[in-house]
Amino acid sequence: MEQQPILQIVDLYKQFPVARSIGDRLMRRPNQVVHAVDGVSFTVEKGEILALVGESGSGKTTVGMNVLGLQEPTRGRILFDGYDVVDWARGRLPRLKEEHGEIGRLKRRKQILALRRRAQMIFQDPYESLNPRQTIYEIVAEPCEIHDLGLNSEEKEGRVRAALEDCGLVPAEHFWNRYPDELSGGQRQRVVIASALALEPELLIADEPVSMLDVSIRADILTLLQSLRKVRDITILYTTHDLATAGYFTDRMAVMYLGRIVEIGPTVEVLKDPRHPYTQALVSVAPVPNPRKRRKRMILQGEVPNPIDVPSGCRFHPRCPLATEECGQIDPPYVEITSKHKAACHII
Amino acid sequence: MTTLDVRDLSVQYISEAGAALQAVEGLSFTLEQGHSLGLVGESGCGKTTVMLSLLRLLPEAGRIVGGQVLFDGRDLLQISEREMQSVRWKKVAMVFQGAMNALNPVRTVESQIVEALQLHNVVNSSKDARNRAGELLELVGITAKRGKQYPHQFSGGMRQRAVIAMALACNPPILIADEPTTALDVMIQAQIIELLEELQRELNLCLVLVTHDLGVVAEMCDDVLVMYGGTAAEYASSDTIFNDPLHPYTQRLLKAFPDIAEPGSDLASIPGNPPRLDDLPPGCRFEPRCHASNGEPLCVKQLPALVEIAPGHQAACHLVKGA
User: Fold this and answer.
1) Which of A222, A223, A289 is nearest residue B215 as measured by Cβ atoms?
2) What fold is seen in the domain B2-91+172-315?
3) Which helix (H) or strand (E) holds B300?
4) CA distance B221 to B225
5) CB 3.0-4.6 Å disulfide test: which of A183, A226, A309, B77 passes with A187?
6) Do residues B225 and A294 make contact, with C-beta atoms less than 8 angstroms apart?
């Protein structure tokens, strides 16, 4: 029997209205919207690490926010372990019943929290995301209090210890009475990850977790994320603009451009044999740490267009070196390259 | 031809408590005309301090305690402040880290370039200045007309180009770029790398790239100086550094850096953290994190000097012996 994917995203759209000035209103200019996520579908299997790669403005962070229920999608479905996150957040679903198992015995608000705590986020900047006046223990234990898990102090201590030690802060006692400013950047990021683990989530969304860290300790944090899959059977959605770190530890990679996934497939395959011209360009310009391996760069001119006026047809065609007339008119469907690798381009 | 010769540079910062912190110790390197040098290291290793020292622009707490910076037959550390002003920007210009976000938001980009030109007396009239500003913008790939716009109307990549144009205002032979690509998106980063390469070729610039990104260095630089804890660890051609590194720190740093050409290959962090300036190890700065030293007494006690191991290849390590 095939296991149900832990996360299914079906045709997700997220639009943000653009603030209108008085002038706009007086002139009755039409409302404008930013198409941050514009028709994204993908699934994540349990225990998988998926990289969501793209430049700023590609919509990768918005996808993560929607999955966590921190933003509400304009359209589309997000199924987390079979539960519709969107309908849940909007309170459209009836309370789960006894037949749903243990969760069915909880009150409605608690049911929502019970689902929420199964997905947690790791933030980008370990210098800004820790309260300097809390001890490490308080920081890691706080989520358990917010979620009112009813743990006694011994159980809570056990959770904090396990979370810290799984993140390589061993022994936990050595760290938990300290304050964030007594720790190095790498250790702080471990604390950030530990506090996400305190609720024992099944899905972690890691938004650029290493971009603020020094090169020599980045690999550690990436290896830690990878090890969490083994130790805790966790699924990870890793959003980044850095193809090289994604290439190191993820199973699959989805490349986003202007709110859409243009190519998705096994990481090694996408990096070694990119098919979409945008992915090809991204791979070609990623700096390689060896002068003998310098490659011909395929530099795209200009910048990612404004997501208010998304180009017609293929959204990449104005910058695409291979674009034909068709590309300006018809939005390309996904073409299957291998069973797990597909890309949206007319030329493939 | 050697354009700039830095010998035995040492810099200290005075802490609030009055203690002297050794930020840079005995650093030597040379800049060759038309060549590019990459200054690599982690945050806090002193790379920006070195560059600020060359321009004598250290913050108040910093002071240069030794060494020479030879340029044009003069020692830049000895000349008067007045003479120094004729060197800054005209001879050695710098694109500061984050300068693209420090443009004046209420003045047009052109007027800010004009200001740099007038300040350094390289133009006769304001009309000349505006023409020259237009030329400079065109040189970095921005149409001159857009100079009339304000920084917020520029994208991040364009602001970085404008800052580079400003640095080139006085035709300096030496251009220092401090983390010029760090906060930019991958594609914009590639555009800026390409631009700097073109400018270097066309203007025969001597380019110094200060960065923690080994990939960018491998793409752009002829020579590389690897810094650790305020000292030079290894100094050689780019090809040697990336393919035949001798210093244990360089070796480990390369292993910690993911290579997109080899997805899925192993990465290994360097255990521990870079040393703090107020707590420098007495011997080799890297010894506490070194995989090769094994507590070797020489490594623990004595700071190794940068010595030539092979022609054009220098390393500062007690354990590395010449061939």
Assistant:
1) A289
2) Rossmann fold (3.40.50)
3) helix B297-301
4) 10
5) A183
6) no
From the number of C-beta atoms within 10 Å of its C-beta (0-12, 13-18, 19+), residue B155 rates as middle
Q: Does B264 contact A292 at a Cβ distance shorter than 8 Å?
A: no
CB atoms within 10 A of CB B79: 16
pTM listed for this prediction: 0.89
**DSSP code, position A106:** S
Indicate the residue type of B93.
Answer: A
Out of B186, B215, B270, whose CB is closest to A216?
Answer: B270
Average pLDDT over residues A12-20: 91
Task: Tell me the longest C-alpha to C-alpha distance in chain A.
Answer: 67
Residue A289 and residue B190: Cβ atoms within 8 Å? no
* Cα B228 to Cα B218: distance, rounded to the nearest angstrom: 18
Buried b (16+ CB within 10 A) or exposed e, A36-57: bbbebebebebbbbbbbbbbbb
Extents of the domains making up chain B: 2-91+172-315
DSSP string for residues in A211-235:
TTS-HHHHHHHHHHHHHHHHHH--E
What are the pLDDT digits (tens) for B75-126? 999 999 999 998 999 999 999 988 888 899 999 999 999 999 998 888 889 9
Confidence label for A1 from pLDDT (cuts 50, 70 and 90):
very low
**Model ipTM value:** 0.87
Q: Which residue of A has its CA nearest to B40?
A: A215
**Cross-chain residue pair A247–B188, CB shorter than 8 Å:** no
pLDDT tens per residue, range A75-91? 999 998 888 877 766 66
Using CA coordinates, name the residue in chain A closest to B244: A290
A325 burial class (0-12, 13-18, 19+ CB within 10 angstroms)? exposed
Q: Which residues between 88 and 107 in chain A have a beta carbon less than 8 angstroms from any beta carbon of chain B? A: none
Does the CB of B183 have a partner CB in chain A at under 8 Å? no
Chain A residues close to B274, C-beta within 8 Å: 214, 216
Q: Is the pLDDT of residue A270 over 80?
A: yes
Chain A: closest CA distance from residue B18 (Å): 22
CB contact under 8 A, B185 and A56: yes
DSSP per-residue codes, A166-185 = HTT--SHHHHHTS-GGGS-H
Closest partner residue to B186 among A245, A285, A292, by Cβ?
A285
Nearest to B260 among A241, A288, A294 (CB): A288
Residue B293 to residue B318: CA distance in whole angstroms: 9
Q: Which of A186, A248, A288 sits opposite B264 (nearest CB)?
A: A248
CA distance B76 to A282: 43
Separation CA B141–CA B164 (nearest Å): 11
> What is the overall mean pLDDT for chain A?
89
Give A141-159 as a DSSP string: HHHHHHTT----HHHHHHH
CB contact under 8 A, A216 and B185: no
Q: A253 touching B, CB under 8 A?
A: no
Listed as ranges, residues in chain B with pLDDT below 50 are 323
Tokens of B287: 């010894």
- CA B257 to CA B260: how far, in whole Å? 10
User: A203 and A232 in contact (C-beta within 8 Å)?
Assistant: no
Shortest CA gap B193–chain A (Å): 10
Residue with tokens 């009055």: B18
Report the C-alpha gap between A332 and A315 in whole angstroms: 9
Strands lying side by side in the sheet with B206-211? B92-95, B174-178, B206-211, B36-40, B223-228, B231-237, B313-315, B307-310
